[in-house]
Amino acid sequence: MDASDTPQSLRALFDAAEAKRQIVESSYDGSSPTYASELEAAISLYTKTHEAIATSSLFSPNEGIEDVSTSELPFLLTSFYIAELVQKTPRLQPQERIPVLRRARLAYDAFLNLVDAYGLVKSPTADAAAKRNGKIASFKAEKALKEKLSILKANPRYLENGDEELVRELYLTNTLFCVHTTFTSLDYLNRELSLLSLAPPAPPVATQTDPSRPPPEPFTLLGSGSRQELRRGVFRSGHNLPTMSIDEYLEEERRQGNILEGGTQPKTVVDEDDMDAVDRETYKARAWDDYTDDNRKGSGNTLNMG
């Protein structure tokens, strides 16, 4: 598709997304609400750009990279930028970060599938020395690329009237560098997902209370009858008044069997007119006197006798 055929709405969406991404990447306070809103806005704009690209069939699997116009090459990085921004989502618990990383991985995969269709993907080498040399070369290429891109952004006429071959080379180099970055990011991303899958679930958040304040006391809802009782009891004495006499209380306790009776037998009153009873009591008293005469008090205790 020629540059003149690119929908203006797509170009406007991409430019707005790029501007938001620059704001996010230049922000140093990742915990501020402004950062979170700018990040969400950037992801939303890139997502709309991706949908517009799919709707307009900007890229076709039947064409090569040479068939893509220079002005359309930056659109190849739409899914890559989505993945990079999604990973910047702040203030996440371990279990909340897992779906974020999975979403980023899907965006990375979409980017690799797109550029692989144009033959721009080279599988990462397994040789350690080659990896190290590749990282050094990528770092140098990134530094030079950023300097050249800053020049292009500072002078838009350079993009229109400058050397198109140089501009195209810059875009393709940037795309290849993003491919290398994607493989590196996927490596770290998969490792983080493995660790997060082993993390225990977060404990429930307990409601914090002020230790200096006593806990609230339980209360009871009162009906109209209870209110009247409370009103009548305002001026009564502070202690409970007796409801029965002592004799009534003892009688009630005796009736319930709470008083033990027994011990010393009550003294028998002898009827003086009953001569037989008088004689029995007389003989009983004499027998007791004889017993006490024969058994002096304390005579049975032989333990303390000298």
From TrEMBL:
Domain of life: Eukaryota
GO molecular function, one term: protein phosphatase 2A binding
A GO biological-process term: regulation of dephosphorylation
InterPro entries in UniProt: TAP42/TAP46-like_sf (IPR038511), TAP46-like (IPR007304)
Region (Disordered): 201-224, 257-277
Transmembrane segments: none
Cellular component GO terms held in the UniProt record: cytosol
Pfam assignment, any one: TAP42
UniProt name for this protein: TAP42-like protein
Organism (species): Bionectria ochroleuca (Gliocladium roseum)
